[in-house]
Amino acid sequence: MTETVKGHLIAPQNSTKHAAELTLGSNGFIILKSEAHQYQCQLDAVTLSDALGSMPRNMTFASGWVFISSDGNKLNTWINRHSKTPLLVRLERNLLLICLATVVTALTAYGLYVYAVPKAAKWVASHLPVELSRELGEQGLTMLDEMGFEASKLEQKEQDKLQLRFDDLINKLKEQGVEFTHPPKMTLRFASDGANAFALADGTVVLTDAMVKLANEKLQLEGVILHELGHVHKEHVMTNLVQTAILSITAAMVVGDSSGISDTLTSIAVIGGGLTYSRIHESEADDFAAQQLYSWHQSTEPLATLFEKLHKQQPVDLPGWASTHPALDDRIETLRHYQPPPQPTAH
Amino acid sequence: MTEHSTDLSTKQHSFNFHGNASEFFGIWIVNILLTIVTFGIYSAWAKVRTNTYFYGNTELDGDRFEYLAKPMQILIGRIIAVVALIAWTILSGINPIAAIVCGLLLALALPYLSVRNMRFDARITRYRNVRFNFEGSYSNAYLNILVKPLAAYALIIASSFGFSALLMESHPVVAIIGGILLFTLTAVFGYAWVMVGMASYVVNGYRYGGKPFSAELNMVEYAKIAALGGALFLGSFILGFLLIIGLGMFDVLQALFTGDVIDPETQMTSVFALLAGYLYMFFIGFVIAAFVKTRIRNYLFSKTQIDNTLQLVSNMTLGGYLALIITNLLLTIFTLGLGRAWADIRHAQYMASATQLDGDLALMAVQDHNLEACNAIADEMVDAFDINLNIV
Fold it and tell me: Which residues contact B66 (CB under 8 A, 6 or more apart)?
């Protein structure tokens, strides 16, 4: 049984069209008829365009002429009957595989986001040269000065006292075997914005005068310093930097562009991802502080009280998902319910 | 000339897109799966498969376009581009001086990369056995992509700020109002001048086989589009501001910026107001981007001819395009990204339906050129660094 398919021929390397007709034999034999060019051969002697979806396939003959069918379905059906459908095409049509691929993609995206990126960032951060974080820490301080932070207005005597307490704290931690890649330092600053404290890349802990005044009890101040030392201990600043870099690069590579929409979405995703990681870091630092406070004083209450005082000062609370820090209420709650990790029993 | 215009009006060929979403979803998700399983290596094959699908389903006068790039070409280009991007990101993060040097290097490389990218993209596109080509010169690329924009920036800043600085002492009011007017005027015409330069460089560099594309563009048209876009932005900004005052939200807004204490009652409303404000500005951004894109594409195509016998036509409408990109955005968000395949198909369908070619295609016998598309490095660099020249 033979079939015929109408269509047109295009000359090699030339855009001119010629009407043509293909006779398809049941044994895979092809006869091409056209005023411009005639040819006959077996199906395996022609080059077929790649099979992809239901796209009509073209035939390029050994002579370089290309036949394009005006009834793509008919030609495709005949070709499928006489040659094997490529594996890839069968996979792309397999409903089971498509479902599986969807699940795997979703799980992989989630896994990358939640486990792989933070892990990789931590590893990279701990392998970066120390000079880099030192440089970044100095830049951080310069930036603070440009943002309107001034030298501390506390009395020199009080500053010296604070410095001593900070050193005591560090020694205590070192005795317990807590290690720091960057030796922690403390510096005091005055800012008009109010109570604040943060850690820089090189292990510097910055406290504002207002924070020192707010944390008016010894253990409260210890709590806030421990929180910042938690950031230093876990190298959060550098990890964050690497995480953002990884996220932006991955996002840029994964999301191709079709109408500028993906650009917008990518930047939202990167910002959102950065915020999530930042909140995780805050919780880690809280946990670090809680652990030390609990083992020294059997209570995490001082830090919780300090957070409550901070909470009263804040004018507007952004919703949790849009903030760099977890909601203070939740942090206070977590601190109050802190349970120390079970200690290995010594024999 | 009259002969040509009768030629052009005799035949109209519309672009048709034959791809469909459910079929493409299978291709797309299997591409992603194989990319994951091969740790990214397959992404080069995935790109070729995706492009083959979109080119091959775009039909004009009974024939489909063809995508000719080879996966290995793409893979090599992609590896080089990723290494370059990582090195660039790390270097520019180290310190401010390194960042400036990195920025300068990228700016200097931009015209070169653009030329290589356009040439590659043109040579791997085939229609009726004839490939496209891009013949724009490097020197003109540097002139139009680097020198002119820099000159325009310099002119805008120097003229408006210079004027204000000169008169600030004697007539402060004249200085400020004049400065703003001068800034607006130079910005609009600077934009038009740069865009006309870039667009005519790109269009006039294209070839189909040996047949040249040509376009003579008028700066005034671009200036009009820029001025309207600016007016649209200003108008919506003022409207938004009036809405804030009208709804009595001004105090809350002020408190947000000054850091005053707001009682908890109004806290939630202020958060909502802030979110609504963001959404509004986001929407305005979309409207203006869509407006500028549709107007410029329609104008640019109306001036573009191939070998003086074929006329390109673009019939995009603001409403149609805006509806498309907003529904596509929602589609992508609410399917957590899985709707991307469908969104891409819808985009291709719309773009094809808004594009046509007038003139008798059959009359034009075009011979293919014998130039090879060398490597895909520039192509991948432009993708990785996201530095596409957007002339439409």
Answer: A49, B52, B55, B56, B125, B126, B127
Distance between CA atoms of A66 and A39, rounded to whole angstroms?
Answer: 11
Q: Where exactly are the structural domains of chain A?
A: 3-84, 131-336
Instruction: Give me the residues paired with residue B267 across strands.
Output: none
b/e per residue, A143-171, with b = 16+ CB within 10 A?
Answer: ebeeeebeebebeeeebeebeeebeebbe
Q: Are A229 and A288 in contact (CB under 8 A)?
A: yes
Query: Residues of B numbered 261-280 whose beta carbons fall under 8 angstroms of chain A's beta carbons: which are they?
Result: 261-262, 267, 270-271
Quickly list H helices, B43-124.
Answer: 43-56, 71-94, 96-123
**DSSP per-residue string spanning A196-241:** -EEE-TTSEEEEEHHHHHHS-SHHHHHHHHHHHHHHHHTTHHHHHH
Assigned CATH for A3-84: 2.30.29.30
Q: Chain B contacts of A318, Cβ < 8 Å? A: 271
Name B58's Cβ contacts closer than 8 Å, sequence gap at least 6.
B15, B16, B17, B18, B64, B65, B348, B352
Question: How high is the ipTM of this complex?
Answer: 0.78
Pairing of strands A17-24, A3-10: antiparallel
Query: Chain A: nearest CA to B362, how far in angstroms?
Result: 7
CB contact under 8 A, B95 and A139: yes
Q: What is the CA radius of gyration of chain A?
A: 34
Q: How far lies A261's CA from each of A160, B280, B298, B343, in Å?
A: 55, 16, 21, 10
- Range name among A60-64, A103-107, A337-341, B123-127 with the lowest pLDDT average: A337-341
Distance between CA B32 and CA A104 in Å, rounded? 9
What's the confidence (pLDDT) of residue A258? Answer: 43
User: 């806290």: which residue's tokens?
Assistant: B267
Q: What is the pLDDT of residues B292-301, one digit of tens each?
A: 999 999 999 9
Q: Coil, strand, or helix at residue B161? A: helix
Which of B211-235 are b and which e, b meaning 16 or more Cβ less than 10 Å from the residue's Cβ? bbbebebeeebbbebbbebeeebee
